[in-house]
């Protein structure tokens, strides 16, 4: 019974990631050619230099999806938060939505990251995308820094509603980061799953499930292709909300 449940739940994961890539991130459905341009030098150059970093992020994200159609990693990011005293912690999360003004994530409001964001609302994200293009590796990294805002539920409830069943069950039974007895957790899981499958339970969003948006004031792009010296573009937000872009050494 448990084995069948695991297989059924696991089989849904790729489709969930695919919907995130296109419906939430807002990328075109048609196939696109990768936007990077190899040079005849060992010194790589990022072209074109977009005026707005979000446009370049979307282009690179789209490239990675097209070059890795079965890869589940395009949405994966590393999030660093810090206490007010400066102690830093880091973890891996999923990008839930890309807005014109920021990057949306969802988590447990009782978690360590939420406690640190309450103390210090500034955070950093990074994406790493690696794929083979011919015989060479295309390596891209995007670093993002900025202030994090807690979102009203009405702004993102659709993200929770699209979650697969096992994720909704996790939200109900797991108090993120707290000690737990595995057998108790399993019994809670099995009972809740039974109630749902028998139609006796609706898994509405728990109050502790929250979402945040990181509003970037700095976005840095790194790219290399094969055995080349990488290139970097640094975007900094200006007081008038425009972006200043400069090329910096790798």
Automatic annotation (TrEMBL):
GO BP annotation list: pyridoxine biosynthetic process
Gene Ontology molecular function: FMN binding; pyridoxamine phosphate oxidase activity
Keyword Kinase found: no
Domain Pyridoxamine 5'-phosphate oxidase N-terminal: 74-154
The entry's keywords: Flavoprotein, FMN, Oxidoreductase
InterPro entries per UniProt: Pyridox_Oxase, Pyridox_Oxase_N, Pyridoxamine_oxidase_dimer_C, Split_barrel_FMN-bd
Task performed by this protein: Catalyzes the oxidation of either pyridoxine 5'-phosphate (PNP) or pyridoxamine 5'-phosphate (PMP) into pyridoxal 5'-phosphate (PLP).
Protein name: pyridoxal 5'-phosphate synthase
Annotated source species: Bemisia tabaci (Sweetpotato whitefly)
Taxon lineage: Eukaryota, Metazoa, Ecdysozoa, Arthropoda, Hexapoda
């Amino acid at each position: 019974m448990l084995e069948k449940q695991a297989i059924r739940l696991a089989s849904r994961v790729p489709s969930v990631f695919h919907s995130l890539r296109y419906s939430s991130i807002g990328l075109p459905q048609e196939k696109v050619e990768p936007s990077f341009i190899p040079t005849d030098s060992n010194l790589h150059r990022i072209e074109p230099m977009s005026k707005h970093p979000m446009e370049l992020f979307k282009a690179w994200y789209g490239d990675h999806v097209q070059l890795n159609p079965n890869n589940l990693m395009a949405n994966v990011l590393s999030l660093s938060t810090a206490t007010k005293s400066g102690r830093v912690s880091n973890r891996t999360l999923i990008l839930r939505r890309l807005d014109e003004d920021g990057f949306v994530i969802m988590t447990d409001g009782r978690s360590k990251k939420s406690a640190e964001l309450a103390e210090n609302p500034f955070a950093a994200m990074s994406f790493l995308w690696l794929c083979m293009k011919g015989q060479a590796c295309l390596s891209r990294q995007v670093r993002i820094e900025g202030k994090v805002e807690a979102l009203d539920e009405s702004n993102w409830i659709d993200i929770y509603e699209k979650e697969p069943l096992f994720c909704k069950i996790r939200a109900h039974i797991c108090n993120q980061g707290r000690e737990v007895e595995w057998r108790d957790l399993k019994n809670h899981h099995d009972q809740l799953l039974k109630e749902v499958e028998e139609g006796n339970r609706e898994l509405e969003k728990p109050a502790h499930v929250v979402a945040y948006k990181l509003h970037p004031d700095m976005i840095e792009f790194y790219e290399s292709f094969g055995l080349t010296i990488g290139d970097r573009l640094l975007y900094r937000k200006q007081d008038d909300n425009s972006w200043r872009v400069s090329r910096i050494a790798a």
